[in-house]
Amino acid sequence: MQTQRPPSVWVDNGHAIVRRGMVACLQQAGFVVRGESAALVPTPTVDRIDVLLFESEGTALRRAVRLAAGRPTGLVATIRVATEQQVREIVDAGVAAVLPHDTLTPESLVASVRAVVAGAVTLPGDLLARLLTHVMQTANLGPTGLNPRERSVLRLLAEGLDTRGIAEDLCFSERTVKNVVHDVLTKLNCRTRAQAVALATREGAI
């Protein structure tokens, strides 16, 4: 019987102690850490990893997105100051999880990276709630109108559920969930689930 390989990750952070602490937490949780960097130097070998965990400072966001372009590698960004605008920029770029430094714990780090490996989206709860509070709830999203089933899937994505969790919650098959997500990405012209959640949140669709 073939066993599933453990997920792999690359850890990028400018503070050596913080970086090594992240490495230790992830290794203890069963992840394989393929390498470390500061400000993405040395350049991560993204073709060999499931998740690139990077510190979003300066030009790092643009560089990380460019490195992962066209690959299945998930992006997880840590940020020092979690402003609404910065989180939106990060999510719009295709990053699947955002981890503010001031609320980061070993448990939240491991849970977020695992969620991204499973295909989920992880956003700061307080910022997501703020986005939801300040948008007008509408029945449709412009000319591309999302139907109720698509909005339900998006809401659960925003809550951090992966494909299996969404299927169980809505009593769908996992194949149906994947098809709905594909339709949503097509309608919203988004490359990733995180982008779709960010756009739908801003437009009041969820």
Shape: globular
- In percent, how much strand structure appears in the residues? 5-15%
CATH architecture of the largest domain: 3-Layer(aba) Sandwich
Class computed from helices, strands and strand pairing: alpha/beta
Unreliable residue runs: 131-143
Distance between the termini: 42 Å
> Could you name the CATH homologous superfamily of the largest domain?
Response regulator
- Give the strand tally: 5
The CATH topology of the largest domain turns out to be Rossmann fold
Number of domains: 2
Q: Please give the order of strands in the largest beta sheet.
A: 2-1-3-4-5
Question: Nearest-angstrom radius of gyration?
Answer: 17 Å
What pattern of helices and strands is seen along the backbone?
A: EHEEHEHEHHHHHH
Secondary structure topology:
Elements: E1 8-12, H1 16-28, E2 32-37, E3 51-55, H2 60-68, E4 74-79, H3 84-92, E5 97-100, H4 106-117, H5 125-133, H6 148-158, H7 163-170, H8 174-188, H9 193-203
Parallel strand pairs: 1-2, 1-3, 3-4, 4-5
